[in-house]
Amino acid sequence: MDVVIVESPAKAKTINKYLGKDYKVLASFGHVRDLPAKDGSVRPDEDFAMSWTVDNPSAKRLNEIAKAVKESDGLILATDPDREGEAISWHVMEVLRQKRALKDKPVRRVVFNAITKQAILDAMAQPREVDASLVDAYLARRALDYLVGFTLSPVLWRKLPGARSAGRVQSVALRLVCDREAEIERFVREDYWQIAALLDTPRKESFEARLTAFDGKKLQKLDIKSQEQADEIKAMLDGASYEVLSVEAKPTRRNPAPPFTTSTLQQAASSRLGFSASRTMQVAQRLYEGLDIGGETTGLITYMRTDGVQMAPEALEQARAAVGATFGERYLPEKARHYSVKAKNAQEAHEAIRPTDFSRTPEQMKKRLDNDQARLYELIWKRAIASQMQAAEIERTTAEIEAKGNGRIAALRAVGSVIRFDGFLAAYTEAKEDDKQDDDNRRLPEINTGEMLDRKDINVTKHTTEPPPRYSEASLIKKMEELGIGRPSTYAATLKTLEDREYVVIDKRRLVPEAKGRIVTAFLENFFQRYVEYDFTADLEEKLDKISDGQLSWKDVLRDFWREFSAAVGDIKELRVAEVLDTLNEELAPLIFPPREDGGDPRLCPKCGAGKLSLKLGRYGGFIGCSNYPECGYTRQLSESGTENGEAGAAIDGNKVVGTDPHTGEEITLRSGRFGPYVQRGEGKEAKRAGIPKGWAVEAVDYEKALALLSLPRDVGQHPETGKMISAGIGRYGPFLRHDSTYANLESVEDVFSVGLNRAVSVIAEKQAKGPRGRAKPAALKELGEHPDGGVITVRDGRYGPYVNYGKVNATLPKGKDPMSVTKEEALELISAKASKPSKKTTRSKART
After folding, report:
1. Does this model's pTM top 0.70?
2. Of 276-285, 377-386, 650-659, which range is least confident?
3. Is 303 part of the annotated catalytic residue set?
4. 249: CATH
5. What is the mean pLDDT of residues 296-314?
6. Whether residues 284 and 350 fall in one domain
7. Which domain holds residue 50?
């Protein structure tokens, strides 16, 4: 009997069914070793020696694997077909050698791109050795990431208190987001006018033609700069005659895109399904590892971490057969389509992402998959099918029209397209991205050269130029791929790190840099510029690729990098914090010192009038303070959104008077403090204060709203049963109702000021019904079946993250574990481990005795 090692229990279960009793398939549960998060895990002075540690759960599983291998005839390593998979196989093999479990037993490495019976049996028939070059590339990447993170992050902590970390790819991705924000801030809006004529053919069919030239001068987008200029042109067009100078009908062909890679799947899932990158990968992982299809578990898609765009020959044949059967022979090209990747530094070692069986249509799979899985599977199936279909045939018509009047001449153009044959568009259409596609989808009536046209109307529209949009997850991934930064398996994790570090916030699916992220980026650009340059990072990725191809030595690459990097870090350690702050004050001036309305010095302290404002660094990050501290205690926050004015959470420059309290006569002011903007009535220690609720724009806080905030908590009315008052307020955890000792959350801040007695009583009753702990058990995300001792095991998502529940035992899932992928076996192991631990209460009791 041979022991087969894979990553996940779900994968192990499926493969075990395919291989039968002559094999024992065990799961490693991902990586079994890692570099400890402390100094010395990678030692450049010892030729980059690396220390690996094994955590307790992994140690237990490795002991089980070692025991099984000792009793086996050989070891087969069947982890994923990428660098990470190769690394996991290498780690398992190294640990088993240390445990003397291998001895003379044969060790084979097999890879498969899909978890289907045929793919696995084919892989088992073609074993190989662990690829040393791929392992070297993994070791180099892991060492680089460690050296950058654990060398640069302490520098950040000392020079920029409140900064969380820096990373080789993470910091460059953050720079992209921050550079785009700076570009938006520098952008100057311009007004411009566009003119279009609504014209009739002699057959009384209407169409629109846009102005392209006037008085012999070609007009660009921004050339009409005033209403007066637009009115002058309109007046001429109102009295003009219109003649068709030429009509050109040009047939074009639009070819389909290749099947999905990791990055293109993440982009399409974001724009079409609203999935984050991490959610896309979680759902794709389930489709890859396998689901129960008609009583048999099988993988539905090929491996989802790839930048290859080709499909295997047998898949091409299957896709072509599906095209003919589904759409008809006319939609089938004479030969199969072959694609090559255009992304910088891409590797094409693996197939593109495709269905494992094209005969499993999205309609058939809907009843067997949950909603997210069905939608993602449909996207993958349609894109892969479309890649092997005929081109769409489109006829693009352009009509050039001349307008004459009052001795002046104008040129207009009408553009439209007709789809003569839809081709691949019958299966998959790209989302609209620009006006050009709108033109392509506009049909024109019959227009003939030399015809005179009738004017129906002249439309003049005013427009304003817009700054470039902030990055979405999808567009940032696309940009990183274009620049050659990161790899398919790292995109989702990189974006998640930026969010977890509070360097960016996602607002309406757009990435907005936080002030903390802007400060970190400015620091790195000024003092570590080379290491956040796009070309440098891409060049390093290319060297890692050459290591994996056996063209470079991984330690040579590390030596070259470390020599310059360590010298740069050594230089920066000598810098005083004051020097850093002076540089950041200048670099971030538009962000932290916006122009004042009175035209005065934006850095002059508005409180004492003598001190100079400067960026200060505290335990919780950056804020603005006066140079006359402690004599002057003026401070204000950097905005949470990355801009100083006009958004919720923005800082207030000085104290803004909004009115006078009608009862006390005290002045009510709008201010900024260390913990954000707030309103205050009066002065001194006895002054009443109230924070601006999250979601409220500072500039929208007027006299009435300030009074309302300062009047909280608000008495709603007496409870009809107890006679005790129910009050509403805003606390640390948001808007709430209070009755006696019961607190109940309200849905919004507005409810605090509008909730009536009847609803308040209902909300309080619902909260009391949930029990003394005040929190109902979250609904089950998934049921895993019966526990051997009776009772149902479920997966739930709680306040502190996802967990498995059995009775009174709640066991937290490992970090990064997809709650929807948890198996019953994993849950039983987590529950058993949790139940065997003494509770904190028991531990404290023993400590007292």
Report:
1. no
2. 650-659
3. yes
4. 2.70.20.10
5. 87
6. yes
7. 2-130
